[in-house]
């Protein structure tokens, strides 16, 4: 065989081998950590920032502090209201004092004396009225005064009986409910005031501090964004032709970086069932291949926890 013929045969073999080799299915994306936002509990001014962006913190470490003057005042008001409701309930449970009972007895005695006087006056006027020695209107006024005095006696006697009988159970129940509401409001205000010192709920890295010293964020605005988790994950977009072969739990290889020079083993932890991009035209035939599905691949191995978020990557799924 000539040298030219041998070279031609070698090229054919190389081309055949290249045609037989298939690349593993892959998807592109970025390296991510789980993100948590720390919202502002109230519209208060930022008076202290204890960390820098990119700094690693442990659970319970202070991130920043908000002004507490208003929160302390609201907490004191809630404590005072709870104390007032507590004393009102105690007053109802103890019932009327002995001095109050004595005062009601004295009121009853005074009403009885006035009633006796009114009846005696009426008894003196009635004979005179029958003899027409006094006007009939005077007799009627005396009779009305006697009736009023008797009514006052009945009212004083009922007030004394009510005090001696004690407080109704329904009043005790209402006071207990009012106290429970005041104590619940106190607990809620205590939690809100405690959140004015913003601390890290988990160990992680401070990714962003949107506000600066002296700012007054609105309630619910993110004061800090943290990256948490023991290891990052790859967020990739799986093309429709590969979706049928990607399942949760499948092994994968993650090539990190634009050149893909660093590779780490991984495992699929999530695949969305709905596409992230839906074209306006029919999802059939060739058009369906334009769909992509969001997936997450958890990285494994040594050193993955130190990788920075946002790096581009490529994920190869096991065939």
From TrEMBL:
This is HlyD family secretion protein. Residues 1-23 form the signal peptide. SUPFAM superfamilies: HlyD-like secretion proteins. Pfam families: HH_MFP_RND (PF25876). It is found in: Cell envelope. InterPro entries: MdtA-like_HH (IPR058624), UPF0194_transport (IPR050465). Residues 101-164 form the Multidrug resistance protein MdtA-like alpha-helical hairpin domain. Keywords: Coiled coil, Signal. It comes from Luteimonas composti. Residues 66-121 form a coiled coil. PANTHER family: EFFLUX SYSTEM COMPONENT YKNX-RELATED (PTHR32347), UPF0194 MEMBRANE PROTEIN YBHG (PTHR32347:SF29).
């Amino acid at each position: 065989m000539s040298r030219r013929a041998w070279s031609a045969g070698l090229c054919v073999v190389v081309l055949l081998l290249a045609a037989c080799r298939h690349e593993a299915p892959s998807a592109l994306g970025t390296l991510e950590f789980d993100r948590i936002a720390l919202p502002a509990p109230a519209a208060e001014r930022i008076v202290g920032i204890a960390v820098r962006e990119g700094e690693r913190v442990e659970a319970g470490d202070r991130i920043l502090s908000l002004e507490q003057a208003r929160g302390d005042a609201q907490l004191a008001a809630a404590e005072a209201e709870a104390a007032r409701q507590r004393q009102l309930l105690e007053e109802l449970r103890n019932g009327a004092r002995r001095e109050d009972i004595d005062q009601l007895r004295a009121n009853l005695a005074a009403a009885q004396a006035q009633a006796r006087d009114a009846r005696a006056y009426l008894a003196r006027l009635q004979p005179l009225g029958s003899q027409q020695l006094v006007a009939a209107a005077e007799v009627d006024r005396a009779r009305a005064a006697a009736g009023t005095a008797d009514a006052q006696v009945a009212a004083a006697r009922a007030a004394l009986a009510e005090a001696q009988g004690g407080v109704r159970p329904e009043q005790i129940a209402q006071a207990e409910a009012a106290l429970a509401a005041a104590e619940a409001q106190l607990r809620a205000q205590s939690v809100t005031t405690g959140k004015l010192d913003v601390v890290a709920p988990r160990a992680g890295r401070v990714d962003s501090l949107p506000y600066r010293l002296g700012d007054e964020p609105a309630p619910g605005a993110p004061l800090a964004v943290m990256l948490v988790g023991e290891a990052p994950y790859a967020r990739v977009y799986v093309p429709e032709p590969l979706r049928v072969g990607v399942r949760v739990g499948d092994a994968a290889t993650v090539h990190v970086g634009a050149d893909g020079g660093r590779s780490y083993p991984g495992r699929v932890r999530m695949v969305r069932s709905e596409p992230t991009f839906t074209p306006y035209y029919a999802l059939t035939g060739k058009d369906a291949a334009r769909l992509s599905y969001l997936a997450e691949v958890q990285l494994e191995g040594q050193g993955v926890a130190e990788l920075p978020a946002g790096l581009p990557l490529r994920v190869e799924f096991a065939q």
